[in-house]
Specification:
By secondary structure, this protein is an alpha/beta fold. It has a six-stranded mixed β-sheet, with helices on both faces. Helix 3 links the parallel strand 3 and strand 4. Helix 17 runs antiparallel to helix 18. The radius of gyration is 22 Å and the shape is globular. The structure holds flavin-adenine dinucleotide (FAD). The site of flavin-adenine dinucleotide has 29 residues, from helix 11, helix 13, helix 17 and helix 19.
């Protein structure tokens, strides 16, 4: 396993470890968990080696542009659980109010070594480089939230799922292992790091943050590792055997519902696969179908945001897709809507409105409807660039799993990325078309409308 951790490590500066530091620091951000957390494992190993206490800090800011009550509630439920679990392990877990960079620097100054978990998005990557540039102790980053580390899979943007699949499959098995944290030699729970920003009640926590409270909280999913494991067990024992057949049907509940937990790093994809393979053979068609989503598409999304600087912009889609959309920019749209119309589920299409209502109500739209949803935004907006921005805005604002590489990848797919040109149509040109009739022919879609009719 040690060898495998090495493959996940990247030095972000060239300073050596400072043996005179007071502790070894892990600044948790992307991987909000203990289980299958290789950054934590590495920090414990270093703390044991150096005989210094291990300290974990978590920065909470209310200044992040997407901060809202819906997803903060989910995140804080996980943090409250984590605090308890770290205490049980005898590890200091300090929650601090403030931004990531200043927190990592403030605590990093006194540490022997700073360990960070990787986040693949541009803003969060910039934060990490700022931390590494401002500290004069070693800063390392651990590629912690993928099965196969991004840079090991490929050193360039991969344009198709099958290409990245061919690179991931031959090495994937090397990264799927049982995970066990080593015993800590120096207990740190009593280590004094000054005043803390922590409330064991989630509502009090939320009230102490100046975030957007107009986006309502939802009770559909509760954050944290324990809930993620419950959903995983339910998936393995009650859904996986029919996953391939039913996952695309929005009237059925055969998806795992793990995306919010994966987004906040409450659970590792390695743990998910490891547990599935204890119960099912690798070759099983449902397992293959699930791996295709959880590993191939999810890690294609990490590759995309890592190597394409325009991943969250219209400019990031392939040239052929931009060309065809530009050629059809002047076409008359059958329906035209504003951001407000979309946001309030006020289009002529009851299926589209139901998908938007599912999102507003539950914080998680079904995968099949996400495709239909973004493709129709493209059809019913006067400009494809504006359509791209509206899709990102609504996805990031309301999806519990939003603000994630998967979201930018999914939206880009609806605009032609990772796909091929199809027969030319008005407005969308050669971009793959999805029809309302398709929904009616494939599913008992009225059932879906019924479920979300009351908002
Ligand atoms: P399951 O079917 O149980 O899949 C398991 C896991 O595999 C998911 O949790 C996810 O991590 C991964 N996965 C599944 N489908 C995809 C996919 N198409 N691309 C990449 N990874 C995938 N996913 C997000 O996590 N966040 C988003 O903001 C997001 N926005 C999307 C927007 C659009 C327009 C589209 C078309 C897709 C989007 N997706 C997004 C991908 C996908 O819809 C969700 O990951 C999936 O619906 C999550 O539900 P689940 O965990 O129950 O899925």
């Amino acid at each position: 396993m040690e060898n495998m951790i090495d493959k996940r490590l990247k030095k972000l500066n060239s300073y050596p470890i400072s043996p005179e530091g007071k502790y070894v620091l892990y600044c948790m951000e992307a991987s909000q968990r203990i289980s299958y957390n290789y950054a934590l494992l590495f920090t414990i190993e270093k703390s044991n080696e150096l005989r210094k206490p291990l300290v974990v800090i978590f920065n909470i800011t209310d200044q992040y542009k997407h901060s809202n009550a819906r997803y903060y509630k989910f995140m804080l439920e996980g943090i409250i659980e984590l605090k308890r679990d770290f205490e049980t392990l005898g590890i200091k877990f300090q929650v601090r109010k403030g931004d990531y960079v200043s927190g990592c620097i403030e605590f990093g100054k006194d540490s022997c070594l700073v360990v960070l978990d990787r986040n693949y998005l541009a803003t969060q990557r910039k934060w990490r480089y700022e931390v590494a540039n401002k500290l004069d102790t070693l800063v390392v980053e651990v590629d912690n939230d993928v099965v196969v580390p991004v840079e090991l899979v490929s050193n360039k943007e991969e344009p198709y799922a099958y290409l990245i699949r061919n690179k991931i499959y031959p090495i994937m098995e090397n990264f799927i292992h049982e995970f066990k944290l080593p015993d800590q030699k120096v207990k740190s729970s009593q280590f004094d790091l000054g005043e803390e920003f922590f409330f064991s009640d989630v509502n009090i926590f939320l009230n102490n943050l100046n975030i957007d409270k107009t986006v309502s909280t939802v009770n559909t999913f509760r954050g944290g590792y324990n809930e993620a494991v419950k959903l995983l067990d339910e998936f393995i024992f009650n859904k996986l055997s029919m996953y391939k057949e039913y996952r695309s049907d929005p009237t059925k509940n055969y998806q795992s519902n793990l995306s919010p937990y994966l987004h906040f790093g409450n659970i590792s994809p390695v743990e998910i696969i490891h547990k599935i393979l204890k119960n099912y053979p690798f070759e099983d068609e449902n397992v293959q179908s699930f791996i295709n989503e959880l590993v191939v598409w999810r890690e294609l999304a990490r590759n995309f945001v890592y190597y394409n600087i325009n991943y969250n912009k219209y400019e990031g889609i392939p040239e052929w897709a931009k060309k065809t959309l530009e050629e059809h920019k002047g076409d008359k749209r059958e329906f035209l809507y504003t951001l407000q119309d979309f946001e309030n589920a006020k289009t002529h299409d009851i299926y589209w409105n139901s998908a938007q209502k599912e999102l507003l109500k539950t914080g998680k739209m079904h995968n099949y409807m996400r495709m239909y949803w973004a493709k129709k935004i493209l059809e019913w907006t006067k400009d494809p660039k504006e359509a791209f921005d509206i899709s990102c805005y609504l996805n990031d604002k309301y999806e519990l799993d939003g603000r994630d590489p998967n979201g930018y990848t999914g939206i880009s797919w609806c605009f032609g990325s990772f796909d091929r040109p199809f027969g030319e149509r008005k407005v969308i040109g050669k971009i793959r078309y999805m029809s309302t009739k398709g929904l009616e022919n494939k599913f008992d879609i009225k059932k879906y409308v019924e479920k979300y009719k009351n908002l």
